[in-house]
Design brief:
Keywords: Bacterial flagellum, Cell projection, Cilium, Flagellum
Protein name: Flagellar hook-basal body protein
Order of helices and strands: HEEEEEEEEEEEEEEEEEEEEEH
Shape: elongated
Helix content: 10-25%
Low-confidence stretches: none
Family: Belongs to the flagella basal body rod proteins family.
Number of helices: 2
Subcellular location: Bacterial flagellum basal body
Distance between the termini: 22 Å
Organism: Alkalihalophilus sp. As8PL
Largest sheet: 4 strands, antiparallel
Mean pLDDT: 86
Radius of gyration: 27 Å
Number of strands: 21
Length: 274
């Protein structure tokens, strides 16, 4: 079997996966708070080829022929937690989370801030950057999918109606002037420990929950009511990368077709000689 056949096939699979990732990013270009996935192509480890003529090289090391490249693969997708642009909507239930300069973790990556969400019937805690909220029939502040937004006490926030206010630190006040509570803002020292679950929700992969950023003097943030954070997807750059992935897929496809034609000749023509 021709070795290049596997390399071309691996390239096609990697480019197809990259195209799917970029297509998903572009589809969410208008999703509030969406963080674009990013990944890179890496080569599989090369294999060292040596001669296997045991009769000629008895008692001695077989001579090295060289290295064999075994193809490429798409690395694990990781969200880009860069702050998105802020868009004014005028809706009181839209709240934008603006984070300041974040302290760097042990790996040299800056941390990130998130809303704390109660997802599911068993009260699982999830995290989000989508500030497009709404109010349910009972007067609680929720996501558009109906998940409760949690306060610093771990309880859902009951604001009553849309005439509530929130200050830059997350303190909520109902339309009648009663204090509702304080919105909990979670801090992830290493945001790469969060994985996407769909509908803008992120799950912390370690045990326990993320610590709160409220009261942490090293973390600065600001909440703005009537604004929403847009997706950080660069649509023009994403479309350019999609075209590059498509062309690379086609190039690998042509190589695969050339190997297929060579194998066809080897089977149907060379086999008839003699």
């Amino acid at each position: 079997m021709l070795r290049g056949l596997y390399g071309a096939a691996a390239g096609m699979i990697a480019q197809q996966q990259r195209q799917e990732m970029l297509t998903n990013n572009l589809a969410n270009a208008n999703t509030p708070g969406y963080k674009a996935d990013q990944a890179s192509l890496r080569a599989f480890p090369n294999m060292l080829i040596s001669a296997l003529d045991t009769e000629t090289h008895k008692g001695a090391s077989a001579p090295t022929i060289g290295e064999l490249t075994t193809g490429v693969y798409l690395q694990e997708r990781m969200p880009n937690f860069r702050q998105g642009d802020i868009n004014e909507t005028g809706n009181s239930t839209d709240i934008a989370l603006l984070q300041g300069v974040m302290p760097e973790g042990e790996l040299g990556r800056p941390g990130a801030l998130f809303y704390t969400i109660q997802a599911g019937n068993e009260g699982e805690v999830r995290y989000s950057r989508n500030g497009n909220f709404t109010i349910d029939g009972a007067g609680f502040l929720t996501t558009t999918e109906g998940h409760y937004l949690l306060g610093t006490n771990g309880q859902p926030l009951e604001v009553g109606d849309e005439n509530f206010t929130i200050d830059e630190n997350g303190l909520l006040t109902a339309s009648n002037g009663d204090a509702v509570g304080q919105m909990n803002i979670a801090y992830a020292e290493d945001p790469m420990l969060l994985v996407k679950e769909g509908n803008g929700l992120l799950r912390f992969t370690e045990e326990g929950e993320l610590p709160t950023a409220i009261g942490n003097a090293d973390i600065s943030f600001q909440l703005q009511q009537g604004f929403v954070e847009r997706s950080n997807v660069d649509a023009s750059q994403t479309m350019t990368e999609m075209m590059n992935a498509y062309r690379s897929f086609e190039a690998n496809q042509r190589i695969l077709q050339a190997y297929d034609q060579s194998l066809e000749k080897a089977v149907n023509e060379v086999g008839r000689i003699g």
